[in-house]
Amino acid sequence: xxxxxxxxxxxxxxxxxxxxxxxxxxxxxxxxxxxxxxxxxxxxxxxxxxxxxxxxxxxxxxxxxxxxxxxxxxxxxxxxxxxxxxxxxxxxxxxxxxxxxxxxxxxxxxxxxxxxxxxxxxx
Length: 123
Known about the structure:
Blueprint lengths: L10 H14 L4 H12 L3 H7 L8 H6 L14 E2 L2 E2 L6 H17 L4 H4 L8
Helix pairs in contact: 1-5, 2-5
Protein name: DUF2200 domain-containing protein
Pfam family, one: DUF2200
InterPro entries: SP1917_dom_sf, UCP033199
């Protein structure tokens, strides 16, 4: 079975779309980068290299080579593009949709501690 065509999309080509989406809603590139690094375990320096225009690393490679996918990502729920995350069976598509959901939450103005699924200090 062939993979979905989005798997071969270069991350460096997708990233500007994420930037545009969050900046339209008055969020920042730094916040977007924080979300991506939280999810994948990439350092800021690694992410900067991956988003360089022309970098050929595609989404499949981006997630496959991620240093440490955040275990708390399983707490990401809801729907993306009308599809419930809990119903996505393909592991790679689920990772892509987790990132999409986090970007959506950022663009909607959700607080960073909620996006990053962190507990308040008093708990």
